[in-house]
Amino acid sequence: MAEPRVIIVGAGPAGVRAAETLVAAGLRPTVVDEGRRDGGQIYRRQPEGFARSSAELYGTEAARAEALHATFDDLRPKIDYRPGHLAWNVADGHLHVVHDGSAEALPFDALIVASGATDRLMPVKGWQHAGVYSLGAAQIALKSQGCAIGRRVVFLGTGPLMQLVAAQYRKAGAQVVALLDTSRLWNQIRALPKLVSRPDVLAKGVGLAASHLLAGTMVRRGVTPVEIFGDADGGVSGVSVRLASGRDLRLACDAVALGYHLRPETQLADLARCDFAFDAATRQFWPVIDEDGRSSVPGIYLAGDGVRTQGADGAEIAGKLAALAVLTDRGRSAPTEQISRLRQQRRAMERFRAGIAEAFPWPHHLAAGLADDTVVCRCEGITAGELRSVVHDKGADEMNRAKALSRVGMGRCQGRYCGHAAAEVVAAATQLSPAVVGRLRGQAPVKPLAIRTRRAAP
Amino acid sequence: MSEPFRTDVIVVGGGIMGAAAAFFLRRRGKSVALIERALIGQQASGTNFGNVRRQGRFLRQLPLANRSRDIWGRLNELIGEDAEFLASGHLRVTYDDEMTARIETYARDALPYGLDLQIIGGNRLRERFPFLGPEVRAGSYAPHDGHANPRLAAPAFGRAARREGASVFERTEIVAVERDAGTFRVEAADGRVFRAEQLMIAAGAWGNRLSEQFGEPVPLVTHGPQMAVTEPIPYALEPVLGVSTTKLEETVYFRQVKRGNIVIGGAARGPASADTQRASVKPENTLLQFTQITRVVPALARLNIIRVWSGVESYLPDDIPIMGPSAKVPGLYYAFGFCGHGFQLGPGVGDVMAELISTGQTTTPIEPFAIARFASAPA
Ligand SMILES: Cc1cc2nc3c(=O)[nH]c(=O)nc-3n(C[C@H](O)[C@H](O)[C@H](O)COP(=O)(O)OP(=O)(O)OC[C@H]3O[C@@H](n4cnc5c(N)ncnc54)[C@H](O)[C@@H]3O)c2cc1C
Ligand SMILES: Cc1cc2nc3c(=O)[nH]c(=O)nc-3n(C[C@H](O)[C@H](O)[C@H](O)COP(=O)(O)OP(=O)(O)OC[C@H]3O[C@@H](n4cnc5c(N)ncnc54)[C@H](O)[C@@H]3O)c2cc1C
Asked: Is A129 in the same domain as A45?
């Protein structure tokens, strides 16, 4: 039998474990990642020439990071690794990649998409000012460049990442002015039965939360974001929120890290025409997968945070399962025992994921309260009021229609950052569920593609 | 069963043709039901390139295109909404003497139809349009052509029709059409029935599915023109640009919208399915467009595209539409199959069809588009 051509997109925990599993079965997969180095989001390797220790970079996760990097270093000669390659399209059994202006179409029999996650964002008035970063961007600045987004930083949003990045900032010497969390303590308490499925991670999370209190950092829960103050010249100057008590709180700062947990990067799955379904608990559309990561399209497998936000350990398991599914589907012998063990571990990860989603809920109710002059789509400068007006005056009760008539989500990021919030604004304005309002249709390119791009010489 | 919904005229299909026809029919006092399977302007009319171009068209289509151009120019007063029509000028360029000779001939032939084209060559062309690349030899400039926003135009006509009193039914798919007892009976997938004395089929790439039911099949095929758009940059490219050539891969066109994005099309066609209502862009076509547009304007190489798309468009073997009365059934009218050129024609087609349906004749000649040209020999 000819060796199946397998391509993996993403050299994070999911992609690396998938590659390892395929190599162990005697295959030579291609691994494509737009980053210049492996490691993915959480175990991102610093650029060559930087020499901070793993402990400094990855904290409690240093051992896992080192293990993953070592695995990948061993795999290097046994795989076709394509760093700095953006997968910009997928069609007709080919993955289309571009590297430094040169485009190639890579044929595949199986494609494992392990594309990771990005921040899930809810607009707040003033978030377009310079000095407002997503939590992810704030962490990347620290991890890859060793610099903070400001000297006095307010963390606004919710989710485990907010707790983590705030702690990392404090450690790096930045002043963490406050953690302003939209979730409430009882959200977390109610989620405990699910969260205990990973007691070690739960303990770390509790420890993180405690560390903020011990450090004397201001932590407020159940807040309603009101406004980020600032101007075009000076950038951010402060933040105001309404506290759970109903009082207003205004804080001075020079940077804001904003984020409401994560959302999977699903454009490649979308371009591959995978089916999506609405998840009512997190109020977003997800690609449909089976327990091993098979999508609805034969030959397309989805793994890691790019399909379900199960975190780094979950991503490693999902990567292995997806690779084993490829092997099974291509008629290779697959270790059934290992598969059932991994599936079982994955169920715990999934239970924990659901717990996190409950503990730090997406504050969809904020969409209805956004002032009309709040910018929703930062690329195109479309406000909540403009979006509502195409709903009320032009009958746009579906996302793609709202986009066509308002330009929301039509800019550089193609709605990757504003899409969920825009859907909530439309849902609130129409009084429909976001399941009915729908999602923005994906189109290539996955990220902006340079017109100077030419086909690589064969 | 509930009573049928009765009007003077039923228009099936809410693309720009149907929506504009409904508007003009109301202006002529007819009661109208405009019935659309999904949302007004969601198919070809909402996904097209936005060219409001007359030059290069089949000469006998120019009177219709002129009538339409006239409406584009006063659209805002007419329908009370802005579809971003911009009379930016339209420039078709050539790469060789043979094509230059052809655009000269076309300019001469189009003059009697009132289309005033300026043929510009050599240094004068570069002085006027300094962004053109070295391969460009000459250009045919149409000062009064331009572009508009397809996302806005058909929905705006639909709303205007509604304000004028048309009954607009969205998310209503028509599955059966027939004429019985002297009136048309039009049935939706959910069982609702509409009745009228006159019926207009404006169902785009799905038009033949309805014309067939009246014994008038046509050899309609579907393709998806390939589109892309760049990130916004300061407004600098005034005219719509296109290449006049006989080589398909050289036929690119592009335009810059006022807010800065450059919309790109051409070089190839992609797959489009009437069944799935989807059309896609082949990745290799996007790359081909890159090569071709930078021949026209090399500076475009510095930009990025942020999105590609396509749409389901219908074509006939002779590259001109079906428009006019049925050859078989009195009271039945067609306007579909616009072969990639229908956006510019839309407002004019609506106006002419309304005239035809309410007076029985048209002041603009449409004979070349008669469905009878495809009448098959009796079996
Ligand atoms: C800023 C941030 C911080 C996080 N911190 C933590 C944390 O502390 N703990 C935790 O458990 N989880 C964290 N997460 C979640 C984290 O994403 C996962 O836990 C883990 O990294 C998931 O692994 P993965 O392999 O699924 O994806 P990732 O590690 O994100 O790897 C995906 C890789 O795919 C590549 N890629 C994506 N799309 C393309 C494309 N089109 N073409 C080419 N390459 C592509 C990316 O460059 C990336 O290297 C964080 C997420 C973010 C966004
Ligand atoms: C990508 C692309 C680029 C183009 N570029 C240009 C350009 O630059 N300039 C130009 O002049 N032209 C252009 N065209 C062509 C132009 O868009 C079309 O010719 C024109 O929009 C056709 O309008 P229409 O109303 O006939 O069809 P459509 O817009 O397709 O409308 C037909 C409508 O009928 C509805 N329908 C079908 N069947 C039924 C049914 N059974 N019941 C109810 N409703 C039904 C459909 O849902 C659809 O909305 C382009 C086309 C495409 C796809």
From this structure: no
